[in-house]
Protein 1
Amino acid sequence: MAPEVLYRVVYGTTNPTPSQTSRLIIEPAILPHYTRRRVRYCDYPAIIPSSELGASVRGTYVRGLTSDDQFRLDLFEGSQYERIRLRLTLLDRKGNEGEEMEAETYVWAEDIGSLEAGEWDFDEFRKEKMGRWVGSDEEYEGELRPSIAGEWDALMVDSTANITMPEVDQAVEQKDPTGGRGRNSEVEGKLEAKGKSEEEVLESAV
């Protein structure tokens, strides 16, 4: 998951405040024995187990997520994915492998017949499709900050319930390339409603 999309899901903006970005620690990581495939008619990828020699997927390992953050991510990913615990290897900024960790990541839960044979291309997604996911207003300038740049597409979280998302399923059937997860989508509305309910709780507490 690109950091802009992560911030949009968790914070409701692709341009979070310094205090918000400091709460989440985002590190590159490698998930072995998995491969990344394109989902037919969609912008986003799926990761599935692979027996091919050297198969791996590069992604983001995220620390600092709260239970509310995780709820929002589950809502966003929908029923096409299952969040499961796997072992991964952290990478340093030069791409060297380091510490092994356990983390939860979203693995494709539907029929692999809906996946294309080709590898999903992160660079193509950034150049041609990112705007559908984060908007095209002043919040999104089309480039990652240097501190978080990289080919990061799989999300691995340091933290379990599956949430059914009929809006996502319907959008996929209608060949919406975001699977109902893009800007101004029904999923976006649910995320915003979740945020408003949290603000109301805080206001009532004050």
Note: The radius of gyration is 17 Å.
Protein 2
Amino acid sequence: MGSLNNHVDGIDGGIPTVDFADWSADSPLEVKQEIAAQLATACQSVGFVYIVNHRISHRKVEEAFTWSQRLFGLKQEEKMLAPHPPGHVVHRGSALPEYVLPGFREFMTNFYWHSWENAEMILQAMAIGIGLDDEDYFLRYHSGHENQLRLLHYPPVPASDLEKQSMTRMDAHSDWASITMLLQDDCGGLQIENPNKAGEFMDAKPIQDAIVLNVGDLLQRWSNAIPDVLKSSLHRVTLPPRQDRFTGDDRLTRARYSIPYFVAPIGKSVIETLPSCVNGKNPAKYGPVNWDDYRLMRGSMQYQS
């Protein structure tokens, strides 16, 4: 049965873990309800959760990281063969010519859709976990075509630059869409805000074969951000937590690779607070929002020149 390590009270508590080993399309409803309840509890308390025994195999994950390292290992002139929109324009997709990295596009396209199959399972569990009668409620807003699979590379930098805050790997932020599924290497550095102490961050330590799942802004809006529903938490990337991540006299950090998969609704979807999350004590905190409008607004804030 799924298990929840629900130690989230304070900076030393850690991030909950939910086991999806017993989840399948044919699982009895009571099995789904137990796993879903564990997922909802984790997302209520922290907004982040480790998902283990999901549907993305260890072999596929290892292969994805290998392709990512090959991509970022290309010569600069090879990388520049992909179109680069001017300025801070939000754009999607890679048009790197096939001859530059043969097999890359085929693998990543298949990996994208394999990740979506995993996300479908999680969205169903979210719906059940917050008490919706229809496990496909959130799926009706998502087709898979609006998602983003990103390959991220954090090059080595002097640790002192991060310590002095003259440089950052990724500032604290929340994610815009519904959910994010993250695969990370063993370097470390991801942190989430302590749910009990604003401005204090706790490590999201790498766990082999686990997905780091976090709630995005849209799920928080759907659930009205009341204390007992879903939380879109701030997170950041900073120094690796262990000293053996540094090398040389300059204490260069080790290169870090991660693969986030952002799950977003169909472009024209209107996100409104769920009726079950509104009552006399908790009126709707958010008005309806069109996803296309919301993502453009958030993009203009994050990528402005």
Note: The radius of gyration is 20 Å.
Protein 3
Amino acid sequence: MTEAHPTPEPPSSPQSNLTSEDGQPFLNGQGTWIRMQNFWRMMTGSMSPSGQKQYWYDADKRYEDTHCKRCEESRDYLLRYSPVIRFMNDRIGELGGELNANNIRCMRCVKGGQGGGFDPHYGIRICANQMQSRKQTEDLLAHEMVHAYDHLRFKLDWEKDLRHAACTEVGQTGGCVSNY
């Protein structure tokens, strides 16, 4: 089961405010012809920047259930069969942590390049609409599990000391955190 998180609507520009350098707007509607027109505008680079944002928002929203289902299937498979994910999960378990489908969540995220994240209160978030393959999901999950391990092993304080977050991001937690 996926959790719905509100995603802000991207700003839309009325057609009357467009100039020739802005490009063509995103066309609202779910009909096949309208989708084809929007797709063509994206492919040819003739859609305005605000139209491009709206295009990706619309696509992500339309395919949210499909993306999340695929992500959850990958997550469950990786937790069972991936050597690196099982290894990291075992190490996290030795420190008293537990990662499973209840705190590794797949959801749609706003475009922006981030594939997921770790939050010590929430768990691991996987941006389902950013994952293109099981291998990419495995890489992201392993990366976020390192943050979970570092959090448990080194008692990181993510909210009060940004150096802790910086240290775990560059993989220098052991030596880095103990220096502060």
Note: Residues 115 and 127 are 5 Å apart (CA to CA).
